[in-house]
């Protein structure tokens, strides 16, 4: 899902299958460009357009949440703005954006539940090896120093 600061990926379920799910997600992300077709883009655009048009008939609490986001975020695009941009969106635009995402990004990982510290490190390694992130640029233009820190938190029921 997208957030105001980026994207989030939630993986949950049976912990003995999480590695398989994560590996499949990484593979799908790597093969994104080869799997994206003009027909798929048209279907996704139509679905997103319908969702954006339906925004105006959402329940009042959803409008309130949108209003809260609008106040808290520095830049918030209205559904009308997004619909306008969606009209001209092309396959080439999406592929160029995908390349920009892969160019530089920051990765934060939280692993919790029935997972050992060794498994958590393995999941982090899978993501880092699969996505190969480059550090984000700081405001001065220099690459920020990234750290691979693992902070183990342990909670056990009494």
UniProtKB/TrEMBL annotation:
Short name of any one Pfam family annotated for the protein: Peptidase_M16_M
GO molecular function: metal ion binding; metalloendopeptidase activity
Gene Ontology biological process terms, A to Z: peptide catabolic process; proteolysis involved in protein catabolic process
GO cellular component, one term: cytosol
Domain Peptidase M16 middle/third: 3-84
Alphabetical UniProt keywords: Metal-binding
Protein name stated in the entry: Peptidase M16 middle/third domain-containing protein
Lineage of source species: Eukaryota, Sar, Stramenopiles, Ochrophyta, Bacillariophyta
């Amino acid at each position: 899902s997208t957030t105001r600061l980026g994207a989030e990926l939630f993986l949950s379920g049976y912990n003995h299958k999480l590695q398989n799910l994560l590996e499949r997600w990484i593979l799908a992300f790597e093969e994104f460009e080869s799997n994206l077709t003009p027909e798929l883009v048209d279907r996704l655009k139509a679905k997103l357009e319908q969702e954006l048009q339906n925004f105006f008939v959402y329940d009042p609490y959803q409008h309130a949440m949108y209003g809260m986001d609008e106040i808290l975020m520095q830049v918030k695009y209205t559904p009308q703005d997004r619909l306008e941009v969606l009209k001209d969106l092309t396959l080439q635009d999406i592929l160029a954006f995908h390349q920009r995402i892969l160019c530089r990004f920051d990765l934060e990982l939280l692993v919790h539940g029935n997972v050992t510290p060794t498994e958590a490190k393995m999941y982090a390694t899978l993501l880092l090896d699969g996505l190969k992130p480059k550090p984000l640029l700081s405001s001065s233009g220099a690459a920020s120093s990234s750290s691979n820190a693992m902070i183990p938190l342990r909670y056990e029921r009494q």
